[in-house]
Amino acid sequence: MTIEMDTDIDEAMLAKAKEVIARWDARAEARKARSEALAGGRPMEADTRTRLAARVNNLLADVRLASRGRRPPSNLALKALVERPTPVTPEEIDESIVQEVVVGARDFLSIEFLERGLLASHSVGRVLISSGGGLRARGTGFLVAPGLLLTNHHVLTSRDLAAICSIEMDYELNRLGPPRQPQVFAFEPDRFFLNDAALDYALVAVAATSDHGAALADYSWLALNPAQGKIVVSDQDYLNIIQHPLGREKEVVVRNNRVLDLRTANDAAADTLGPFLHYEGDTEKGSSGSPVLNDQWAVVALHHSGVPKRDEQGNWLDKEGHVWRREEQSIAEIQWVANEAIRVSSLIAAISNAPVAPQEQDFLNQLLSAQPPARIGDRSRAQEAIGERQPIPAVRPREAERTRRPLAAARPGKANDRPPTPAASATIELPLRITISLDGERLLRQATALGSAQIDRPTVQEALEPEDFADRNGYDPSFLGVTVPLPAIKPQPRFGGALRVLRPARAGDTHELRYHHYSVILCAERRLAYISACNADFGAAVNASRSQGTSSWRNDPRIDGRQQLSGRFYDHNDYDKGHLTRRDDAAWGRAVAEAIAANNDTFLYPNAAPQHYLLNQSDEFTHAGLDLWGDLENYISQQAGGRRLTIFNGCIFGDEDKPLLDALVPLSFYKIVVWRDAGADPGAVGFVLHQDDLVVALPEEAIDPGRFEIRQRRIDDIEAMVDVDFGRVKDWDLLAAARPGEAIEDGGILIRSLDDILLQVSPAAMR
After folding, report:
1. How many CB atoms lie under 10 A from the CB of residue 620?
2. I need a surface site. Which of 81, 476, 623, 730 has the fewest CB within 10 A?
């Protein structure tokens, strides 16, 4: 069915193109350097070792799968790499390995390449809008999970707009067989809708049955996988685009399209590009929302705009090379020289943290699972069953919020404040328009009926990748001039032991997550930190303030998102994201950039633990002028006469910890501070912050503040409570060395003021 393109989208497309031009121009030097490196046969200069190693291993895995049960690659170098039992490490990567694997894997492609491409094409359709009694083409979209479609925000700008749009599948030429009947599936934004103007994406639910009775379940989908290894900056690593340009029948742009530029860890100007990548490819109006895929037909990015060709004066040019005139010519006549797309890793990072209604969570869970379909449906082009269709595993819906009893003190300024639920109430579910204003950790959610779940963000952050952490040195045991080892996990831990780092940025980081000035070891069972070990320098040249850098929390890409207690655990309850290593302790450096980078590193979920907002806001519950850990550390630094401290922070897990969704919240936290005066032996003190009034009988998402206390405790007593061995630090504990009269009781010293902290030990006690 030949239909016209929708012209209402034109202004949005032009606005996007102007944004792209700014990024394109800002990256001119970086793009030139990459191209020159590739032209000179120096791929190591065009991308990073870590990214190249990930891509090489990804390709080797694909060749292993393709060659299983049949002939191995004839390329002897590729064959040797395929047969080796261990992955290629970043340290091993060189030009010859990159060349042999990228080119060898490409030459090894079989007819399966076309079959996989055909399978991928079944997920792609033409977005239509019903207007004026007819249909117009608005863009392209593709299925990314059962019943869920992805396209651009500028294609579906609102929930109301999506309600009058649909996706047309099977609109394609077929001169070699009977014509296919296009199938139009309505969008159902009342079941799920989410979009974001800054990242230019939109997700919408799709009806289960088409206008001709076809089942959506018979179509494939393209899983979104944020892992590294899908593409690199290379003149031999190609991209493919499946699209409906100008609303025409489905087309594919295959091969000889390559990435021109993307953010990498060795790029000093990476923030100018952020979550986008630039690539070659032939696209037009109507291509918006197309999947950008690699040669394994995995989604690399979401296409959203071209880069217009311009003359020396900056005028846009048409396809004839003349100045394009908006008042006289259509967008279809613009000449494009390159394209911009949003990286999958950035999309997944944004979608993972997006607020959705409880009834929409199943859609999001299936999308984030990144599971490809087990079988192509009976109506698919391939007409082949790849094994038996497996049922999609049921995803446990997010538990409905439970009634909470009122707190004694109101929580000022917390975005998820809600009035106490009356004993008897009725809830009416309506489509919501959710607007979020970010101010640090304060969120304001305003719900109004019948609108779009659009998220307005002041900034767009590129998704982090494991390689981004290759320059983090982490905790320094020699920071105080004497060795203070990183504490170890006991041989027989009670709570599952240390979590293994799946995608380490540095060789040997089996369990340690290194950041600027601190390291974290997570508990595998609890998904929270056994220990967050920090080096704090109160005499550093520069300290970043709270207004510098980010205050947005993010997942660490070196471990799976499900291994971190991230955003959803802090929604609609009284928990704050409590820093373990404090921002103030780590945000220092020799220069401003270093201090800001360290500040940003503290806002990663492995360094967070759910803490009641009163606990996290210090004096609001102590009423003693005591800013909890901050004042303790500052006081110790001043009294001990040193400018440097080594600080161990962590959770004290217990059998009575508080349920929260599918996690448990610790009721106590520890802090151990170590210092060393010039020429003297080190000193150490330990503290425990806990709540005496246990809250296990309260509803799951409620917590009674009770009575929080800080106590100075013997470090060996703290060690007995946790799975952590603090080693020689116990020997420096001032409380353990104090006279019997100075150690108040087995429970330690209750800290009501800073003067209560025991920092001095009598000479007799040291003998």
Report:
1. 14
2. 623
Q: What is the SS3 assignment for 350? A: helix
Q: Worst-scoring range by mean pLDDT, 26-30, 154-158, 424-428, 458-462?
A: 424-428
Rounded to whole angstroms, the Cα distance separating 302 from 16 reads: 14
The CA-based angle 523-526-527, given to 5 degrees, is 70
The answer to whether 351 and 203 are in contact (CB under 8 A) is yes
Decide: 730 and 504 in contact? Cβ < 8 Å.
Answer: no
Report d(CA 501, CA 174) in Å as an integer: 49
pLDDT in tens, 486-522: 999 999 999 989 999 988 988 889 999 999 999 999 9
* AA identity, residue 728: R
DSSP element (H, E) containing 205: strand 201-205
At 461, the pLDDT band (50, 70, 90 cuts) reads low
Per-residue confidence at 69, pLDDT binned at 50, 70, 90?
Answer: low
DSSP state of 652: E
How many Å apart are CA 265 and CA 228, to the nearest integer?
13
Distance CA(453)–CA(441), nearest Å, equals: 20
Read off the amino acid at residue 498. A
**Angle, in degrees to the nearest 10, between helices 76-83 and 95-107:** 100
Structure tokens at 148: 């869920």
Name the amino acid, one letter, at 316.
Answer: W
Residues 329-348 pLDDT 10s: 999 999 999 999 999 988 98
Cα(324)–Cα(315) distance, integer angstroms: 7
- pLDDT bracket for residue 153 (50, 70, 90): very high
Category of 464 on φ-ψ map: left (φ > 0), alpha (ψ -120 to 50) or beta: beta
Q: What share of the chain has pLDDT > 70, as a percent?
A: 76
Own/partner pairs, 81-84, CB within 8 angstroms, 24+ separation:
81/56
Beta carbons of 287 and 241 less than 8 angstroms apart: yes
